[in-house]
Amino acid sequence: MPGDKYNSSSYHIPLSRTERLLRERELREKRRSNRARNPNEAVGSSENSDNNLRLEGDSSRQYVEQYLEGAAASARAHDNVCERQEVRPYNRQRLLVVANRLPVSAVRRGEDSWSLEISAGGLVSALLGVKEFDARWIGWAGVNVPDEVGQKSLTKTLAEKRCIPVFLDEEIVHQYYNGYCNNILWPLFHYLGLPQEDRLATTRSFQSQFAAYKKANLMFADVVNEHYEEGDVVWCHDYHLMFLPKCLKEYNSKMKVGWFLHTPFPSSEIHRTLPSRSELLRSVLAADLVMLGVDRLDIIKGIPQKILAFEKFLEENASWRDKVVLLQIAVPTRTDVPEYQKLTSQVHEIVGRINGRFGTLTAAPIHHLDRSLDFYALCALYAVTDVALVTSLRDGMNLVSYEFVACQEAKKGVLILSEFAGAAQSLGAGAILVNPWNITEVAASIGQALNMSSEEREKRHRHNFHHVKTHTSQEWAETFVSELNDTVIEAQLRISKVPPELPQNDAIRRYSKSTNRLLILGFNATLTEPVDNQGRRGDQIKEMDLNLHPELKGPLKALCSDPNTTIVVLSGSSRSVLDKNFGEYDMWLAAENGMFLRLTNGEWMTTMPEHLNMEWVDSVKHVFKYFTERTPRSHFETRDTSLIWNYKYADIEFGRLQARDLLQHLWTGPISNASVDVVQGSRSVEVRAVGVTKGAAIDRILGEIVHSKSMTTPIDYVLCIGHFLGKDEDVYTFFEPELPSDIIPAIARPRPSSDSGTKSSPGDRKPPSKSTHSKKHGSKSSSSSNSYNNNKASQRLSPEKISWNVLEHKGENYFSCAVGRTRTSARYLLGSPDDVVCFLEKLADTTVPNSSSSS
């Protein structure tokens, strides 16, 4: 089966991603070396080899045509050679290249007769030299074919070129390609913004265009699914197919899907203006690998700025006026668009004015050609050029700069490159970088390039030529597919570490058979009510108000009514929040990570360890207040044992920068010598006293529960569910039966007298000190550090009493479950609070009210 080499479980996988990619690179280099040493045996080496194609063709179109024919012939020849020699062929991985347009356009000559015209483009040119993969192209052939006979005959004709058509009707093409792609996405991705429409009817047309866009992407997905084989790599290209990765993953979640954007991805300020931004972004992120890349940006090439800079140079350097010529090739694009028509007129006007000012009867300083050149004429022009001037105002990679360097091995010309072009990152060391908006700077750079010594030209060219020679399109394609393959491996390795979904039936069955059960439940993002934002960004006011899920009230009451079941809500929330949501239930509430505890019919007591140092609170509060003021929509919460700064609702990037600065302020100032833990959430920073964790508090909580219920039989079933921070996941490991016995708590408890059978008297234990926070008033306790050191919950019994293990549950009777967190030390997972609700409803259905207690 194709792709077995990439999916075999027996294939040894290096541990790190870098090691795997380096090894794959080494293997590719060895295969290239073998082909170079044995050209007659190499895959794809025939009379249609690369060199022959370049010699025989007289244009880039012929080059592409022969490449497509040669690819098919090479595959057939390779299979024939392997069959004759009875050897196992080298399994080239199949690559399905999915783009809006095929590399050919179809022209109908009869009912079932077609001719194909080559439509060479940047993507085709980039993949010409790739021989590592068995490539097939999927896309639109540029023609409407409504009849079945025509579709079948065209499919057969295209198959000879290893192309597979997607048949789009005229209305879909108009709405999808001319509409949404070119009218909405293209301007947005080129920083031109969305069209400013003043008619509601036109606004409605945007909706129909997006519907057509999704429909077209689904049609592409249907064709891919029809031709997909296990192990294939599907490579989707550009903004025309942003919805495609999601469609493919919904069809087959194991399909290897990559997406490559040939323009710079717009900044968040631009992208967020797109009405369908979330749906498109989620669709793209369904791909295994997403990369941003290269293509030309027509209207913002900076041609007027370039010509004006040349005028400035001629104005300041009279000696060069009859010695230098600017040859500007301006390939016409979108001649029917008013903005392009205006740009063309503007350029012609500037060129005419400069030639009139500095030209003579026999010479003109600027030669402006509104036309394209064939491959060989363009290469010849690059080769004789002394200085290449690239002044893009906004660009992707800009292949012109690469092409110029590749053709300059003899002359070693100088490249002047816009700092806004993507190539500035790779060719910047050898080029002269300029700001195209600074006309004076560009003019000075022209003079620097023309007067540069041959030694410096040699050094600059050598640096850039080495980069261009080693970073080829073949290397780009092979690296992308290699990284896509490895991304799938990486995902499989991660998934292997992700706990399985909670086995609900087993958990419920063992719950019903146990006699003394303990349920530890988190609150936030576990039992909370979901907030309906109607697809909009998070509603800060609603989400900050934590409320119990309304569908949990019945199940919780049923569970609490079972005397054989003890429920503890263990949360980082304040006491007032837990009081508001759980006051009506018969359960235990453990607030602020278990540092405060009460039975709902009792009063709050503290379980904090002795000598808890809280002297750092005021200084940290000052820092949090400062960053809250300078970070819009952030806030901080003051609790008795911790302080939390939350930037969930702030601008994401700005919030992260502020969080980084805040941490630097904390570590170099208020907490540099303090006994605190800093806990970083996804968008929060919490400072706690050392020892304030849910796991550290649970043994003291258990001690209070055992005493309060006069428990005489051990707990034989534990269920622990929560959306806890990593720091608090020690509560999961606390209950693990497989851990060493010295970690499992031994709670000191007096056994009841055998002759009286009465419960131990209240005098056998020291009463826990009551917090000043009362159940009725919900007021805060004092923030003075002295109020934290007046209780010793874990030492409430005298040491001469008998100890016994309160936890005697077996491994099969322990269910730890993280909610919505795949990186966890819990045994199992539940996806959301809704899943928790469904499970607790089932659990409550097995509860027998008023059953006899064994505790």
From TrEMBL:
<dbReference type="InterPro" id="IPR001830">
    <property type="entry name" value="Glyco_trans_20"/>
</dbReference>
<feature type="compositionally biased region" description="Low complexity">
    <location>
        <begin position="780"/>
        <end position="794"/>
    </location>
</feature>
<feature type="region of interest" description="Disordered">
    <location>
        <begin position="745"/>
        <end position="796"/>
    </location>
</feature>
<dbReference type="Pfam" id="PF02358">
    <property type="entry name" value="Trehalose_PPase"/>
</dbReference>
<dbReference type="InterPro" id="IPR036412">
    <property type="entry name" value="HAD-like_sf"/>
</dbReference>
<feature type="region of interest" description="Disordered">
    <location>
        <begin position="28"/>
        <end position="56"/>
    </location>
</feature>
<dbReference type="Pfam" id="PF00982">
    <property type="entry name" value="Glyco_transf_20"/>
</dbReference>
<dbReference type="InterPro" id="IPR003337">
    <property type="entry name" value="Trehalose_PPase"/>
</dbReference>
<comment type="similarity">
    <text>In the N-terminal section; belongs to the glycosyltransferase 20 family.</text>
</comment>
<feature type="compositionally biased region" description="Polar residues">
    <location>
        <begin position="43"/>
        <end position="52"/>
    </location>
</feature>
<protein>
    <recommendedName>
        <fullName>Alpha,alpha-trehalose-phosphate synthase (UDP-forming)</fullName>
    </recommendedName>
</protein>
<dbReference type="InterPro" id="IPR023214">
    <property type="entry name" value="HAD_sf"/>
</dbReference>
